[in-house]
UniProtKB/TrEMBL annotation:
Principal localisation: membrane
Key words of the record: Antibiotic resistance, Cell inner membrane, Cell membrane, Membrane, Transmembrane, Transmembrane helix, Transport
Positions of transmembrane segments: 60-82, 94-123, 144-165, 171-192, 204-223, 268-285
Domain of life: Bacteria
Name assigned to this protein: Transport permease protein
Keyword Transmembrane helix among record annotations: yes
Membrane topology: Multi-pass membrane protein
Molecular function terms, GO-annotated: ABC-type transporter activity
Cellular component per GO, a single term: ATP-binding cassette (ABC) transporter complex
Tagged with keyword Acetylation: no
GO biological process, one term: lipopolysaccharide transport
Coiled-coil segments on the chain, per record: none
Family: Belongs to the ABC-2 integral membrane protein family.
Amino acid sequence: MSTPADSRAAALAQEPMRSAGPVRGFAAGTWTSVRDIWAHRELLDLLVRREVKARYKDSVLGFFWSLMRPLTMLVIYYVAIGKFLEAERSIPQFAIYIFTGLTAWQLFSEVVLSGTSSIVVNGGLIKKVYVPRDIFPLSTTGSALFNFGIQLGILIIAAVLTGSLRLDSRLLYLPVAFALLLALGLALALVLSAVNVYLRDVQYLVEITTMVLFWASPIVYSWKQVEGAIGGTALEEVYLGNPVTLAVLGFQRAFWSAGENEPMPDHLMLRLGVALAVSIVLLWLSQRIFTRLQGNFAQEL
């Protein structure tokens, strides 16, 4: 007489063998990974919801804090830097200017920082069942996009109320800059999350690096000040070689109408387009590197 355990063993024996290793070939491997993620899209949705809800677990006000954090950040920078340090004298509509840069930066930094630790944080699940490992950096990216949507909504409302938002061709900078931040951030998150499994110091290095990169983009100071300091030198091109800097400038171009007559880098849209194309290629390469490294995740975790 067969037992339930015997029945399960017999059913399992009939299942086809499936390789857990990476599929060879860039094109075939990428297509297989995309199909695998699509097949687990419901799990991805659940993980994104879990990431969002976990932030405010046992909180009475819940998502209210998602609104308070960017608003508080806006007030602090506006008062401390705009008023006390008198930055608003050289930067018109300083509140809109700085909040625009912070909105762009917050998306990028959250995708990278949360993505870097995503595999280690979900180590318990990874060791128990097979799921596409790419799902975990993607889930933190989904959570980051949720928070970005809230902050972007606040920015749009503030820009409309102050008359800074204009419906003209400058808004075309927004989707290009957004796509650049998303592609570059996810590319870094995939590689760093995989390397972090083998070398846990990576997440701390990333935290320090993002703090430095924050000041390497014109968020709390203007491009005009950068141009005055290093304009016309090789350092200017090095500075503009940072894709995050270009994305921040793109956001400012879209929302900061008071800076219409302020200097901006030449051929900004072209620079953004080139950076986006490079970031998409990097995203593809990063996914293939991640796939190569994921084979020993369970053992390392």
